[in-house]
Design a protein that fits this description.
330 residues; mainly alpha; 2 domains; four-stranded mixed beta sheet; 64% helix; transmembrane helix; metal-binding; metalloprotease
C-alpha cells in the first residue's frame, strides 16, 4: 500500500487543481451538458475518495498489504488489544487525518442539507401567506409583484413553481409554457440534489478554489439542461424571449433571484432554481444563456460523449482499485 498511497495523493492533487480548472474553461460542456455533469460528479467523488484514501492507505501500510487487511489489523489493535508497535507516529497522524476529513465531509453534507431544508420550509411558509394558487396551472403559485420572477421550490410531492403576476402580464401563452417547462425540468431531473452536493463540497473545502469553480459550472450546466428540455416544448425564439424577460427583472447588475423577490420573502439560498440563472454574476448569466440559444452549437459526437462517460467511470475505478486491490502496486 506504500505506492498506492502516493498514487492516490497524486490523483487527489490532479483532481483538486488542474483538471477542474481546465474543465471549467472548456467550451465543449455547452454542447453536451449531461456528459459534462457526469464528469463533474466523477471528479468530485474520485477527488474526495483519493484524498481520504491516500491518508488511509499511508496510515494502514504497516498493518497489511491492502485496505481490507490493514483495516483488519487496525480492528485487532483497537478492539482485541493487539500490539500497536508497528504503527509509527506518522501513521497514527495519517489515520487521524483521514478519519477527521471523512467525518468533516459527511458532517458538512448533512449540515448543508439541514440548512437548505430549513430555508425551504421557511420560504414555503412565507409563500403560503403571500401567494395564491394558479387558476390555470397545477403545482404553481403566484406572488403579487411587478418584477418578473420565476423559480421552483423543490419538496417532493409539495414541489411548486413560483411566478410573479408581473411576469404573467409580460409573457405570452407560449412563453409562459417555456418558462414552466424549464422550471419543471429542474424538478424532474432533481437538480436541487446536485446543487446540494456541490454546495456541501464548497462549504467543506472553502480553501480549495476549484470547489467554487465546480459549483459555478454545475449551476451553469443545470440551466443548460433545463433550457434544452424547454426546447422540446417551445421553439427557440420563444424561449429566448422568455429568458430575456425574466432576466430583465434583476434589481441590479449581478443580482440573482433573491434580489428579485418581494421584500417579505426570505432569501431561499440554494433552494430556488430561477429561469434567469443561478446568479447573473456567474459566467453563464442571462447574456450567456441567450448567446447559447441564439447561436446553437452542434452536440458532441457520440464517440466523444461515450469517451467522456468512460473517463468518468475510470476516474471512479482507479482510486477504488488502488484501495482494495491486494498488493496492486507492491
Amino acid at each position: 500500500m506504500f505506492w498506492a498511497s502516493y498514487a492516490l495523493a497524486a490523483l487527489a492533487i490532479v483532481l483538486a487543481w488542474p483538471v477542474p480548472v481546465l474543465l471549467s474553461r472548456a467550451q465543449w460542456p455547452a454542447r453536451s451538458p449531461f456528459t459534462a455533469m457526469v464528469l463533474w460528479q466523477a471528479i468530485a467523488l474520485a477527488g474526495g475518495l483519493s484524498m481520504i484514501g491516500a491518508m488511509l492507505t499511508w496510515g494502514l501500510e504497516p498493518l497489511g498489504d491492502n485496505l481490507l487487511a490493514g483495516l483488519h489489523g487496525l480492528w485487532r489493535i483497537l478492539l482485541e488489544g493487539a500490539p500497536a508497535s508497528t504503527l509509527g507516529l506518522v501513521h497514527v497522524f495519517a489515520l487521524s487525518a483521514a478519519t477527521l476529513l471523512g467525518a468533516h465531509l459527511v458532517f458538512t453534507l448533512l449540515l448543508t442539507y439541514y440548512r437548505i431544508q430549513r430555508g425551504r420550509h421557511r420560504h414555503r411558509d412565507m409563500l403560503n401567506l403571500l401567494s395564491s394558487p394558479s387558476a390555470d396551472t397545477p403545482a404553481t403559485v403566484v406572488i403579487q409583484h411587478p418584477t418578473p420572477v420565476a423559480y421552483c421550490l423543490p419538496g417532493g410531492a409539495r414541489s411548486v413553481t413560483v411566478l410573479s403576476d408581473g411576469l404573467l402580464n409580460m409573457l405570452s401563452k407560449e412563453e409562459l409554457g417555456a418558462v414552466l417547462t424549464h422550471e419543471r425540468a429542474h424538478l424532474a431531473q432533481h437538480h436541487h440534489l446536485l446543487l446540494w452536493a456541490f454546495a456541501a463540497w464548497r462549504a467543506a473545502l472553502p480553501w480549495l478554489p476549484t470547489s467554487l469553480l465546480a459549483q459555478r459550472s454545475v449551476n451553469e450546466l443545470i440551466e443548460m439542461l433545463a433550457d434544452d428540455e424547454a426546447l422540446h416544448e417551445a421553439d427557440r425564439m420563444t424561449l429566448v424571449r422568455a429568458v430575456a424577460i425574466v432576466g430583465s427583472g434583476s434589481a441590479a447588475p449581478g443580482a440573482g433571484a433573491e434580489a428579485r423577490l418581494p421584500p417579505a420573502l426570505p432569501a431561499p439560498g440554494n433552494t430556488p432554481l430561477p429561469l434567469g440563472g443561478p446568479d447573473a454574476s456567474e459566467p453563464l448569466g442571462t447574456a450567456g444563456r441567450l448567446s447559447r440559444l441564439l447561436t446553437p452549437q452542434p452536440p458532441l459526437p457520440r464517440w466523444q460523449q461515450w469517451s467522456v462517460l468512460c473517463l468518468s467511470i475510470l476516474l471512479l475505478a482507479v482510486p477504488t482499485t488502488l484501495l482494495i486491490a491486494p498488493g496492486l502496486l507492491n
